[in-house]
Amino acid sequence: MKERLKPTKSEIALLLLAAAFALGMLLYKDLRADGGAWQITTQRDSDAQCEVMPVNINTATEEELIAVEGIGPTLAQRIVSYREEHGPFKTIEELDQVKGIGMSLIENIRYLVCTEE
Q: What's the whole-number mean pLDDT along residues 24-32?
């Protein structure tokens, strides 16, 4: 007659852990049925108006430039100094001439700044 093997407590624990992991993965897959794309939603009071006005880099003070995400005190000072030395910026791309500002930052702040009123 065959002897029946008894699983140890450790083996039972591992089996339960594996089963819990597999169940979790199935639930995760079902919740991500949208193709894996993450979606961020925000709620806003329907009466509230949220309008972002671009900062004019030709007239802004250092404090106004610091308010632009990605521009700190040092870059704000450099922008003002460059503007005073070379005159107003004709395009946003001219910010590339300011030390410490590259095309990557320009692309990130493009919708936050302008060169005319």
A: 72
